[in-house]
Write a structure and sequence with these properties.
With 113 residues, this protein is mainly alpha-helical. 63% of the residues lie in helices and 4% in strands. It is built from 4 helices and 2 strands; from the N terminus they run ββαααα.
């Protein structure tokens, strides 16, 4: 999915992942944990987060179709937050990848914060 994309069924606009939002997510306990991970863990982490989000979306959509309301403890805002966190993790994965590549060409401290 892309930021700012409208979901046709609900008309929900996904907020863009801004620099300010990235900084906010970095300050959360989970964000701080993500920032300390090595690049090697990110592909599996992205797969896991994507699968979890897809499962939540499926449950939410099934409840909407059956008109039973939101599944227990699952709101549209929570889904949007989960999506934005997934985008954050993908962004950090790119930053970590770039750091790994820069180490080859520019020895020394190349960490991007």
């Amino acid at each position: 999915m892309m930021t700012g994309q409208k979901i046709p069924q609900t008309g929900v606009t996904l907020p863009p992942l801004t620099h300010q939002r990235i900084q906010e997510l970095k300050q959360t306990p989970m964000g701080q944990h993500i920032m300390q991970e090595t690049f090697q863990v990110f592909p599996e982490l992205v797969k896991s987060l994507t699968a979890a989000l897809q499962e939540k979306l499926t449950r939410f959509e099934q409840a909407r179709i059956k008109d039973t309301g939101s599944p227990e403890g699952l709101t549209l805002n929570m889904l949007v937050d989960d999506y934005q966190f997934l985008e954050f993790v993908q962004h950090i994965m790119f930053v970590k990848w770039r750091e790994e590549k820069n180490k080859r060409y520019y020895p020394g401290d190349t960490q991007v914060n």
